[in-house]
Every structure is written in structure tokens, then in C-alpha cells.
Write a structure and sequence with these properties.
The complex is a heterodimer of chains A (234) and B (327).
Chain A lengths: L9 E4 L5 E4 L4 H27 L2 H17 L1 H6 L7 H5 L2 E5 L7 H9 L1 H5 L5 H9 L6 H6 L1 E5 L23 H12 L6 H10 L1 H4 L7 H15 L4
Antiparallel strand pairs in A: 1-2, 3-4
Helix pairs in contact in A: 1-2, 9-12, 10-12
Chain B lengths: L2 H28 L6 H23 L4 H18 L7 H18 L1 H24 L10 H10 L16 H21 L6 H23 L3 H34 L6 H33 L7 H21 L6
Classes of the chains: A mainly alpha (234), B mainly alpha (327).
């Protein structure tokens, strides 16, 4: 509701009664994560080949078994860790969660990674990519079956600082959404051109009363109202 | 209450919660997860408070940076608190003693169907190729047939092996990779309405039958059967179970009953999950037997066939009787 229908946000409710907002990760982020993981795996395989070459018969076994482990268990092992993601996904700021927003369970992680076989068909993850592109939550087939999702880890948000203007009490009573809109405008003020700020502030003109004014005067007062709403009422 | 009052009132709590979450994540990375008990309790209390405050902040339409900060910290704490970290021995024992055989019995019709899909082509091709060996070329090319013939003929040294790999350990590794690949294909094929599972079951059954029929006809039957019969108890069963799991997925898609197709598929996956763990474990055992025991050709045939019979009896009775009591 807060952010519009354009966003691909998914709400998941927790037992504490709050809704977490999950932001599913699309194809590009996951593609780069996959490339990184792939590079890591290749590096390990090359290293393992060097080591196993020194060890003779057992070396071959170690190498083949490590191939197997890297192929099937590498994602599972990392997804069940605290980061909930392989190194590649971690680097891209992604993590794997259940549809409920809970951490991924062992069964689900195993399922989604074994079903990579199906996603890979007919070639180069063809079905997986088609499924991701068609769906709003960007799930590949393995995710669909396991009930998991790859989401963006929430990023740290800088504390907004409002422009230094004199606080002004609003001239009329305003609702919560309008209050939020005015404060949001004020906290973005430093990142806008003056003209655009004036334009947007003019929309909130009724809040500050004094119908005769326009331009920078109104803007200043709207910003003042934002300060007042935030509680800086000197 | 204004946003700033709200923030200054609870700032200390949020900061502590954020620090705790960071600390836990850092600990996990170093591998030493020894958080004191008090801290866990504190974390839970702070988390619940932050949840309440987030709900308030949303309700009162506080500025985005405030709400987003709370969303972030509650989200992180939520992941931490609900993480499952119990992979203990007790769960494993429960799985072996009850979970796995029960799941298999619950899916007995799928197992039956998968067995038939695998065994019928095996028998048909086996008998056909035994009668007319040239038919083997319709299943595999001449080089492969030749390779199999060489693998099971001549001295015991290279029995059942590709000639480029030369130790028990190496073959153990090779078998794991190969067999697990086949099984996972049988399972994942279920996603295509079960057709993939059917295809891989029939295909692998046909291959096995062709090899068996061809080698028998060539008079290498004894070396071949004494080599494969022991580990086949685990390997063929595991392949059939993986196919059965795949068929269950396919049926979930085809006949969702009163659920949506997707919900039905997820339900099927949850149901067969123990079977997936189980057949992966069985393949591991099969590869170990194949690598270390089956190649021990110096043992007398009686011993080898007895052990094989014991394995088959063990595997089958495990699935039929294990874990029936104490429901």
C-alpha cells in the first residue's frame, strides 16, 4: 500500500504480527551471483586438481568426490548458514528465504538445488530463466517447488536530515498520509533542484495557509511544517 | 508523539538490537557460536519490542527512514531467531528408524509404478538382446558395447572399471557422481508432469537390461552378475525411489485435487523430501559397496552371492517392516 503497484514487493507476516517486506531479486542480480559462484567453484576445482595430482589413486577419488560435492552440495551448505546465501549471492546482497520470509529449511534448500537439473533444461538454464522472467516474484522452477524465494537483503538507510528552516505549525488539520508525504518531501529536499522542489511544495500550499504567496516562500513554509511534524518545534 | 520523540525514546533499544544482530552474524562467520543464554533472551525481548514499535511507526505514518530502519532490524533479527539449527543425531536416528521407510510405504503405489517402469524394459531388453545380440546396437553404440565387454572380461584386475581410473577410491568417487546424476535426473524429471521421470526410468532400465543381456550372451554372465548383484540392492532401489519421488511431483502437478497446482506441487515436494534424503544416502552406500566390495574378486563366489542375498533381503525388509510399531 505504502509503495505503489509498480514495485514487486511481497508481504510476509511474522508470528509477531508485523509484515516483512520481501523484495524478490530479478534475473540480472541472480545471474551475476551465479557467475561469481561459478568462478569460485572453478577456482576450487582447479586447486583440487593440483592437489589431487600429487596424491595418485586416492587423489583422483578426492577430486571426483569434490566435483560431486561442489556440483550438488555447495549451494545447500551455504544457504543453510547464517548468511542464508552462497558467497556469490551474498556479494550481490541477496539471500534465500522461504515464502513466509523465514530462513530456508534444509529440505527446501535441498529440493531447490536438486531441481536445478530441471531448471537447466533444455540448455543454459532455459526453463529457469523463462520461469523467472514470467513471474512477478522471479522464481525458478526449483523455487516454485521448494516454496523459496531469492530476495534482496534490506539495505541500510541513512538518517534523513531536514533543511534548517523555522518550524511552522500547519494551518489546517492534516491526515497521516499527507503528513508522511510532507516529511518525505522535506527529507528529499537536498537532492532536488530548487525549481522542482517549489513545484512539489506548491501542491501542499493549502497546508501553510496564506493563499497569496507562491514560489520559494511557500516552499520554505512547507519545509517548516515538515520540521514541526517531525517534532522540532522550537 | 512526534517522530523525533519516538526515535529518541527507543533509540537505545534499537541500537542494542542492531549491535546484537551484527554480533551474532559475525560470530557465525568465525564459526564459534557460543552466545550466552542471557543474550538470546534479551534478543527476543528487544525483537518483540521493535516489532511493536514498527507496527506503531507504520500506523502513524512516520517518515520512511525511520520505518525502513525498523524494518531492516526486525527483518534481520527475524532471520536470526527463526533459523533452524537442529541437525542433530536424534533427528537422524528418527529418520532412519521411522521417517524414511514410512515415507516409502506411504508412496507404495508410486514405488510400484516406478519399479515396473524400470524393470519391464530391463527384462524385455535383456531377453531380446540375449536372443539377438545385434539388437544391442539399437540401445548403445558399438564403442560402448565394446567397453562393457572389456570391463567384464579378462583378468579380475580391471573388473567393472573404466580402464583410465585405477583404484578403489577413484571408482568410489566415479560411481557416486554417475549414479547420483542418474537419480537426480529421475527425480527432477518429475517436474515435467512426471514425463521426465518416466523417460529416465525407462531409459536407464533399458540400458541396464541391454548390458545384462549382451554380456550374458557373450558368456560373461557370471563375472557380471557377481560384480553387480550386491550393490544393485542399494543402487537400483535408490533409482526406483528417486523415480517414485519424481512421479509424485508429476502427479502433484497433474491432479492437484482441491489445491492450486502450485500448492499441490509444494505439498508433494514436502511429502517426498524424506525419500530424497533417503535415496541420496542409499546411493552413497551403493557407491561404497561398488568401489570396495564388489571388486574383491578373490573372494569365493558363495561368499559374494550370500552377502548379496543378505543385502537384498535387508533392503527389502527394511522398507516393508521397519518403523511400523509405535505409531
Amino acid at each position: 500500500m505504502r509503495r505503489g503497484a509498480l514495485d514487486t514487493l511481497i508481504e510476509a507476516e511474522t508470528p509477531e504480527g508485523i509484515s516483512l517486506e520481501l523484495r524478490p531479486a530479478g534475473l540480472p542480480a541472480r545471474f551475476f551471483a551465479f557467475l561469481l559462484d561459478w568462478a569460485i567453484r572453478i577456482a576450487v576445482i582447479v586447486a583440487a586438481a593440483q592437489i589431487s595430482a600429487l596424491m595418485g589413486g586416492i587423489g583422483t577419488a578426492v577430486w571426483i568426490i569434490s566435483l560431486f560435492v561442489l556440483e550438488w552440495l555447495y549451494p545447500v551448505a551455504f544457504e543453510l548458514g547464517r548468511a542464508g546465501a552462497t558467497p556469490g549471492k551474498s556479494a550481490m546482497g541477496l539471500r534465500v528465504v522461504m515464502d513466509s520470509g523465514l530462513p530456508v529449511t534444509p529440505a527446501a534448500s535441498l529440493t531447490r538445488n536438486l531441481l536445478r537439473v530441471a531448471d537447466f533444461l533444455p540448455l543454459m538454464y532455459g526453463f529457469g530463466i523463462i520461469s523467472m522472467l514470467l513471474r512477478k516474484d522471479f522464481k525458478r522452477l526449483g523455487d516454485l517447488v521448494a516454496g523459496t524465494m531469492v530476495v534482496h537483503r534490506p539495505r541500510a538507510v541513512a538518517r534523513a536530515s531536514l533543511p534548517e528552516v523555522e518550524a511552522v505549525a500547519p494551518a489546517i488539520g492534516i491526515g497521516l498520509t499527507e503528513q508522511a508525504a510532507i516529511v518525505a518531501l522535506a527529507s528529499r529536499a537536498s537532492r532536488m533542484t530548487g525549481e522542482r522542489l517549489d513545484e512539489l511544495a506548491a501542491l501542499a500550499a493549502p497546508v501553510v495557509g496564506q493563499p497569496g504567496d507562491s514560489g520559494a516562500v511557500v516552499t520554505r513554509r512547507v519545509l517548516g511544517v515538515a520540521r514541526w511534524l517531525m517534532g522540532q518545534r522550537k | 508523539m512526534t517522530p523525533l520523540q519516538f526515535e529518541s525514546l527507543y533509540e537505545a533499544d534499537w541500537k542494542r538490537l542492531e549491535d546484537m544482530v551484527q554480533q551474532c552474524l559475525a560470530r557465525g562467520r568465525r564459526g564459534a557460536a557460543r552466545a550466552p543464554a542471557v543474550q538470546g533472551e534479551q534478543l527476543a525481548i528487544l525483537y518483540r519490542r521493535a516489532c511493536e514499535q514498527l507496527a506503531l511507526a507504520r500506523q502513524r505514518a512516520y517518515p520512511p527512514y525511520l520505518v525502513e530502519r525498523l524494518e531492516r532490524v526486525t527483518g534481520d533479527a527475524h532471520q536470526l531467531i527463526y533459523q533452524r539449527r537442529q541437525f542433530g543425531a536424534a533427528a537422524f536416528r528418527e529418520f532412519i528408524a521411522r521417517g524414511f521407510p514410512r515415507t516409502v510405504r506411504q508412496h507404495r503405489y508410486y514405488v510400484l509404478a516406478a519399479s515396473l517402469l524400470f524393470l519391464v524394459p530391463t527384462l524385455v531388453l535383456g531377453v531380446l538382446i540375449h536372443q539377438r545380440p545385434d539388437l544391442v546396437l539399437s540401445v548403445m553404440d558399438a564403442n560402448t558395447a565394446d567397453m562393457f565387454e572389456q570391463m567384464y572380461s579378462g583378468d579380475g584386475e580391471s573388473l567393472g572399471r573404466r580402464r583410465d581410473v585405477n583404484s578403489d577410491w577413484a571408482m568410489f568417487g566415479y560411481y557416486i557422481r554417475n549414479n547420483v546424476g542418474v537419480s537426480f535426473q529421475c527425480f527432477a524429471g518429475g517436474l515435467f508432469l512426471g514425463l521426465g521421470s518416466i523417460f529416465y526410468l525407462v531409459f536407464n532400465g533399458a540400458q541396464a537390461g541391454a548390458v545384462a543381456g549382451y554380456l550374458t550372451e557373450r558368456g560373461l554372465g557370471d563375472t557380471f552378475y557377481s560384480f553387480v548383484v550386491t550393490h544393485a540392492s542399494f543402487e537400483l532401489t535408490a533409482i526406483v525411489l528417486s523415480g517414485a519421488a519424481g512421479l509424485r511431483l508429476g502427479n502433484g502437478l497433474l491432479a492437484p485435487r482441491r489445491l492450486t497446482r502450485r500448492a499441490s506441487l509444494v505439498k508433494a515436494a514436502v511429502e517426498v523430501a524424506p525419500m530424497v534424503y533417503g535415496f541420496a544416502l542409499m546411493l552413497l552406500i551403493a557407491a561404497a559397496i561398488e568401489g570396495f566390495w564388489s571388486s574383491a574378486t578373490w573372494l569365493p563366489g558363495v561368499v559374494r552371492y550370500s552377502v548379496a542375498a543378505a543385502c537384498w533381503a535387508g533392503v527389502l525388509s527394511y522398507f516393508i517392516w521397519q518403523g511400523r510399531r509405535a505409531d
